[in-house]
Amino acid sequence: MRSRLALAGLALFVLAFAATAPRWWASEPLSSEVVAESATPEPEVAESSEAPAERQQTVEIRRGDNLVAVLLRAGLSAEVSHEVAAALRKGGADLRRLRPGGTIDIIWSPADEATSVSWQQSPWLGYAAVAGENGWEGKVLKTTPDVRVATVHGRVERSLFHAIDEAGEQPQLVIALVNIFEWDFDFTADTRAGDRFRLVVEKRYAGDAFVSYGRVLAAQYQSERRLLTGIAFAVGKRFAYYDADGRSLRKMFLKSPLAFTRITSGFTYARPHPILGGRRPHLAIDYAAPTGTAIRAVADGVVVKAGWDGGYGRVVRIRHRAGYQTLYAHLSRFGRGIRSGARVNQRQVIGYVGTTGVSTGPHLHYEVIKGGRRVNPLGEKFIPGDPIPAARRAEFQRHAGTLIERLEAETPF
């Protein structure tokens, strides 16, 4: 561009000079005075040092848009739009993941030609199509997370979610905390005002912007006189949580099949029946929850029944090891792939809360059967996972001691 501007300026200068200069075929000879005057150079016109700048255009993705539609709306031709889309796909971009509210960035040259089109799929992964001599070429743009380790602490007054929010953190941290202790502590039934928590957690940043949490490296939860401790430690390829003595926090059964709800009826041999009247045994736990709330398998097992069962309505019954079975009743619908004979994993969604069968409203009826006899899910002592191997016990103790010292120093209870 700069060379074209220079040539154009030179051409104008030549034309102007030709219009005013004496012609060599004139009848009268040039005098020395005229020659000298004509040889005097004209003042130079200073060329602007500022070249036309590139510009960036950001286009929002609308509902129903594909990439070509976005680019056409931005002013690219149909031919170029399809070439850009093909280059991005070749570069690895899954353009089906474009979402309304996202953006596409376009760089335009001073000649008003598109030179690059980029899409940030996530904070860590983006794609760009760049115009070159051989057409458009797709490129992958990766950002390495800036991982910072921080401590977080709080006190429960209204709820754990509210306490995490008051600490300036995101709801994802609630789920992470619950997942660490859910084998030993039922956050549905046991959370109390005045409970305290503290964590050492990884936070991932893109530049100065917080994006997400990494692993919780250590956590403690104090409820009344009980102190729960979870230390993250890898044994082989498996990453798990252990208490301060190296015992696994993971157990055969979760404490609850629902993540957050409330108990409306406990395990008892004489409960006033809300529909049939009189006092009857209720050898189960009832959890109140809105219709559609996901229900998790509390342990690995095999589905022995998924269907209708009289007053229970829709039920899922699962057989586990060590002679245990669990039953989940009054479901509105079953989870994906849940049928007799299907294998399920702990935490897998097996159905959704409903009010089918004999029921006064949406809730989950949950039973644990051991050796053919119903037992209280909240009082049962389930089989724990494997502890830290003896050969690594000293290493774990040093690791745990360092993390607990940091918690006590930075976030004392």
**Structurally, how many domains make up the residues?**
4
Question: How many β-strand stretches?
Answer: 22
Low-confidence stretches: 1-40
Helix proportion? 10-25%
Report the average pLDDT across residues.
85
Portion in beta strands: 35-45%
Order of helices and strands: HHEHHEEEEEHHEEEEEEEEEEEEEEEEH
CATH architecture of the largest domain: Distorted Sandwich
Contiguous helical run count: 7
Radius of gyration: 36 Å
Descriptive tags:
4 domains; 20% helix; 10-stranded antiparallel sheet; alpha+beta; 5-stranded antiparallel sheet; Nuclear Transport Factor 2, Chain: A; 413 residues; 22 strands
Task: Please give a quick description of this structure.
The chain has helices spanning about 1-20, 30-40, 65-75, 80-90, 160-165, 170-180, 395-410, and strands spanning about 55-60, 105-110, 115-120, 125-130, 135-140, 145-155, 195-205, 210-225, 225-235, 240, 260-265, 270, 280, 285-290, 295, 300-310, 315-320, 325-335, 345, 350-355, 365-370, 375. It is α+β, with helices and mostly antiparallel strands.
Walkthrough of the structure:
The protein is an alpha+beta fold. The protein folds into four domains: 38 residues; 88 residues, Nuclear Transport Factor 2, Chain: A (Roll); 91 residues, Nuclear Transport Factor 2, Chain: A, CATH 3.10.450; 114 residues, Glucose Permease (Domain IIA). It is 20% helix and 37% strand. The two termini are 68 Å apart.
Itemize the secondary structure elements and their pairings.
Elements: H1 2-20, H2 32-39, E1 55-60, H3 67-74, H4 78-90, E2 103-108, E3 114-122, E4 125-132, E5 135-142, E6 146-155, H5 160-166, H6 172-181, E7 196-206, E8 209-223, E9 226-235, E10 238-242, E11 262-265, E12 268-272, E13 279-282, E14 285-288, E15 294-296, E16 301-308, E17 314-319, E18 324-334, E19 343-344, E20 349-353, E21 363-370, E22 373-375, H7 393-410
Antiparallel strand pairs: 1-2, 2-3, 3-4, 4-5, 6-7, 7-8, 8-9, 9-10, 11-14, 12-13, 14-21, 15-20, 16-17, 16-19, 17-18, 18-20, 18-21, 21-22
Helix pairs in contact: 3-4
